[in-house]
Amino acid sequence: MAKSKKKEKKKFRISLNFVLIIQLAIMLSVSIVTTNTVSNRTRESADAHMAMTSEERAQVVLNHIELYERQLGDFARARQVTDLLNKVNDEKNGLSGDELTKDVKDMSVEELTAIAQKLTSEFGGSIPSCEGLWIGTWDTVVLTHSTSQESIGMQTRTDEALLDELREKMKSKGNGVYNAGIIKSPATGNQIVSMYKAIYDKNSKPIGLVGLGIKTDGLINTLDRISGANKDMNNAKNKEKYSKSELRNANYLMLSSTAKTYLFVPDKEKINQEVEIPELKELCEKYGNNNTQDEGKVEYKVNGTEYVASYVYLPNYNWLFFVSAPVKEVYALTNGMRLFLIIFGYVLLILTVVFFFISKRQEKINQKLISTIAKNSQTRQSLNTAMFKDVLTNANNRVSFAMDMENADVSAQKPCYFMMFNILGFSEINTRFGNDAGDRLLVRTVDTLTEVFPGRSVYRTGSDEFVVMIPSEGGQPAPDQVMNDVNTAFRQLMVPEKIENQGAIYPKYKIAVIRRSGPADTSVVSALKEMTNVRGEATYGMIDYREM
Predict the structure, then answer these.
(1) Residue 506 and residue 524: Cα distance in Å, rounded?
(2) Which residues contact 30 (CB under 8 A, 6 or more apart)?
(3) CA 530 from chain center: how many Å?
(4) Contact 521, 536 (CB under 8 A)
(5) In terms of pTM, does the model score above 0.70?
(6) DSSP letter at 115?
(7) Which residues of the chain have pLDDT under 70?
(8) Which of 256, 260, 261, 325 has its CB 3.0 to 4.6 Å from that of 284, i.e. a possible disulfide?
(9) Could you please report the per-residue DSSP string of 233-281?
């Protein structure tokens, strides 16, 4: 009978150990699934951030170029320009000059040139990063020049084939601007954006042209001022602000897809040199003269370092614009999560093995196992909070926003409102009142938005910007109701924040609202940013609203 009890006890021990082994297998499986899920989501989020950054920076490039094209167009419409070119053309071709006004007809070419030269100098001086603004004949003989008196009288295109090519391209643009792209200035050796516009008489016959060269240094400086790529991490302020960013060591690249050469590159000696990286060269061959805008991601290696780059193809100029960063930094969070969860799995394995060999203390081991499971649950919950919540404000973070956008049910029947509240001059607030005061302002902003929009999702999508998402159905809430709530939130946000012994912060905001009626994604943040940047400081009752 004693022998029977001993066998029964042994059977119970084997059964309990078998349960522990099953539990180990399940927990390891859960760890693997969790690892893959979290890693994939964080990787997708990093890729989305890279793509958003490259799209924003590419738009900055386009806006920069289009601004100068408009300025050249404004200059071309000046009466001083057309009067001079009409006069020169009439005298050259022995025409009567009947299309000229009497005062201009009575003036000499020299007098009109002096007037046009004054306009050229003043207009060119008002254009940032202008290397040269000039007026020329249809044969490209320089009549006026904003910066180089030595160039006046020179012909810039002496080769007939090159002259004819320039003329045809200007005429193909009609009254628009022909952008010759980024080239090396023959006069100074600087890298410039070169553009031309044909001037026509009343019979639509070309009588001359205006030209503009813009140094690319101004564009690069504009890009460098934007957070992210090309920041000097030796600067204490930049290090404090961007040390945790996956783009802290990122760089801009821009290639000519037709010439397969570098336009922007960290190594200045490679500018206008042929692209030697195989993956980037293949992209140039892929796009060439393609006239459709596109975007994508590419990975490549330089001097043993692996890089990942998000790119945008700009068909108007045949440019490929990249934001490129080391792979190990872009996917640092992904790799860190994998390492953490692998260690976590090993800890579970070791604990279970220990439990397996200490069968004489089964009850105590079971209690420890239950405790360990509870701790694991708390750890997973903490990981989830750390991944999807902003620690300071408890608002949802960018990762949470990207995931919510994937699952959002937004359509014409169920439109969704997105509103951005961007604290204006936040870095100056931190500098003047200290980071603690700045943190209180961030927390107060989230508390106010949560109070005015109860039950709605509030996201912190940037250091000083917050997005509120409000789904609607059946026409409710109506746009007027939403805008009233936005103005209410704005009024409460504008209440001064008193700082002990330092006065008070008078917060200002940039605010924009979008009503999305189609599938939503993270690009809505870019659209909101663009609206706030265009509008600037918000004014009560006049907040920018857009239907998309």
Answers:
(1) 28
(2) none
(3) 10
(4) no
(5) no
(6) H
(7) 1-18, 20, 39, 186-187, 224-249, 333, 335-338, 351-353, 355-367, 369-370, 372, 374-386
(8) 260
(9) TTSHHHHHHHTT-TTTT-EEEEEETTTTEEEE-SSGGGBTSBP--HHHH
Q: How many CA atoms lie within 13 A of 271 on its CB side?
A: 18
Q: Which residue has the tokens 């037709």?
A: 258
Q: Which two tokens stand for residue 86?
A: 């009409």
The number of angstroms, rounded, from the C-alpha of 10 to the middle of its chain's C-alpha atoms is 66
The three-class DSSP label of residue 507 is coil
Contact call for residues 271 and 252 (beta carbons, < 8 A)? no
Write the single-letter amino acid at 10.
K
Bond from prior residue into 326 cis (ω within 30 degrees of 0): no
Residue-wise DSSP of 488-501: HHHHHHTS-EEETT
Q: What is the pLDDT of residue 12?
A: 47
User: How many CA atoms are closer than 13 Å to the CA of 138, on its beta-carbon side?
Assistant: 18
* Closest listed residue to residue 341, CA positions, set 41, 38, 40: 38
H or E element that contains 209: strand 206-215
Alpha-carbon distance 266 to 224, whole Å? 12
Question: DSSP states of 425-484 as a string?
Answer: THHHHHHHH-HHHHHHHHHHHHHHHHHHSTT-EEEEEETTEEEEEEE-BTTBS-HHHHHH
φ, ψ for residue 440, nearest 5 deg: -60, -35
- Taking the CA of residue 542 as centre, how many other CA atoms within 13 Å lie in the half-sphere pointing to its CB? 5
Residue 321 and residue 280 in contact, taking contact as beta carbons nearer than 8 Å? no
Amino acid at 356: F
pLDDT at 312: 93
Helix (H, G, I), strand (E, B) or coil at 145: strand
